[in-house]
Design a protein that fits this description.
DNA polymerase, domain 1; hpI Integrase, Chain A; 3 domains
C-alpha cells in the first residue's frame, strides 16, 4: 500500500460498503484497489489516454502520427505534384483509423482494410490504398517506427477481366475524330502526347525553351526520366499553328493562360461528352489512354517491353508491359516515331 495522494479528476463513491473509483473526464472506472501502486498507475494511464485523445497532435505510436511524419519527409515532398494530390486523397480515406496503435497493425488488419476499401469503392481504389499505405510503412520501417511492412504480405486485387480496362488505348478512328474536331487549345496537348508519349502533367508543364535544336527535352515529373524526342514535321507544324500566348508555356487555355491540370481535365471531359453524344468516340476514352495507344502500336511493331518503356519515358520494364497490353536511345525514338508518324496526322 502507498499513501493516499490527492488526485485531480478522481471521482469516488461508496455503495453497499464498496468503494468505486472513476477517472472523471472519461468516466472510466479504475479497477485496481484504491491506495495501491497499481491503482495509481491505472489512473495515470486513464489520464494520459484522455489527454492523447483530446490532443490536436497524434500520439507517437499511432498510424496517424506515422502518416504525418511521412508527409513531412522527402519521400513524400519529392513526389510529383499530381502524385502527392492523389496520395493525400487516399490518406484522407485512412483518417478514421488514424488513432489505431501501430502495434495492432498486422497482415490481417491490412487485408481487412483492403477488402473494406473494395466494398466501399472499386478494385483500383482498394489497390491504391494498399500502395499508399505500403509507401508509408516502408518509410516507417526505414526510420524505426515499424519492424516490418505488412502491406508486402497482402496481394493486390486482380482486375475484373469482364470489365473494360481503365485508360484503354484509343482506336484509330477515335484518334482521327479527336484531332479533327478538337479546338486548338485541346488539340495541341493531344498531338504532343501522341508524338512523344508524355503524360498529361508533363505536356502541360512544357516550356517554349524545352524545344531547341530540333529536340524536345523534358525531365519527366513522375519517373525523373530524361526524354529527348526529335521534333517531327507534324509536331513542328502543330507548334507553329498554335495560338500565340504571352506565357513561357507551350500549352495554354483558350484565354491564353497556363493550363492547370484540373482546368484541362474539365475542358477535356466536356469535349468528350460532345464527342460521345455524336457517336464519334466510345465510352471510357481518357487522355492517359494515349500512352496505351502508343504502347499497343509499338508492341504490334515488335518493340519489346524495355524499348517501349524508353519511348514512354519510364524507368522500368514493368511499366512498358503495362502500356503494351491492348533520350536514352535516340535511334529507338526515331524508329518509334517512324512507326507512329501517321498517328497524329
Amino acid at each position: 500500500m502507498m499513501r493516499n495522494l490527492p488526485l485531480k479528476n478522481l471521482k469516488q463513491y461508496t455503495a453497499k460498503g464498496k468503494l468505486y473509483s472513476y477517472y472523471r473526464p472519461s468516466n472510466k472506472r479504475i479497477m485496481a484497489e484504491y491506495g495501491t501502486v497499481e491503482f495509481y498507475l491505472e489512473f495515470e494511464r486513464a489520464d494520459q489516454n484522455w489527454k492523447n485523445k483530446n490532443s490536436k497532435l497524434p500520439r507517437t505510436d499511432t498510424l496517424g502520427y506515422l502518416i504525418e511524419e511521412y508527409k513531412k519527409s522527402n519521400k513524400f515532398v519529392n513526389l510529383a505534384t499530381r502524385t502527392r494530390k492523389d496520395y493525400n486523397g487516399y490518406i484522407d480515406y485512412l483518417q478514421p483509423i488514424a488513432d489505431v496503435p501501430l502495434v495492432e497493425i498486422d497482415t490481417v488488419f491490412i487485408r481487412r482494410l483492403r477488402d473494406k476499401a473494395l466494398e466501399k469503392h472499386y478494385i483500383r481504389y482498394a489497390n491504391y490504398v494498399l500502395s499508399v499505405l505500403s509507401a508509408i510503412f516502408s518509410y516507417g520501417v526505414e526510420y524505426g517506427h515499424l519492424q516490418q511492412n505488412y502491406c508486402r504480405n497482402v496481394s493486390r486485387i486482380p482486375r475484373d477481366k469482364t470489365k473494360k480496362e481503365v485508360n484503354r488505348a484509343w482506336s484509330e478512328n477515335e484518334v482521327k475524330a479527336m484531332l479533327k474536331h478538337s479546338p486548338k487549345h485541346l488539340r495541341l496537348p493531344i498531338v504532343i502526347s501522341l508524338e512523344t508519349g508524355l503524360r498529361l502533367g508533363d505536356v502541360l508543364s512544357l516550356r517554349k525553351n524545352d524545344f531547341k535544336n530540333g529536340l524536345l527535352t523534358k525531365l519527366t515529373s513522375k519517373t525523373n526520366f530524361k526524354v529527348e524526342c526529335p521534333i517531327t514535321k507534324a509536331l513542328r507544324k502543330e507548334l507553329d499553328d498554335a495560338p500565340h500566348n504571352d506565357t513561357v508555356f507551350v500549352c495554354c487555355s483558350s484565354l491564353g493562360r497556363q493550363w492547370t491540370l484540373d482546368g484541362f481535365q474539365s475542358s477535356f471531359q466536356r469535349y468528350k461528352k460532345v464527342m460521345l453524344g455524336n457517336g464519334l468516340i466510345e465510352s471510357g476514352l481518357t487522355f492517359h489512354g494515349i500512352r496505351h495507344t502508343i504502347g499497343a502500336r509499338l508492341k504490334e511493331a515488335g518493340f519489346n517491353n524495355s524499348e517501349i518503356a524508353i519511348v514512354l519515358g519510364d524507368k522500368t520494364e514493368n511499366m512498358g508491359k503495362t502500356y503494351s497490353r491492348d533520350s536514352q536511345n535516340k535511334n529507338l525514338i526515331l524508329k518509334a516515331q517512324n512507326i507512329l508518324k501517321n498517328l497524329a496526322n
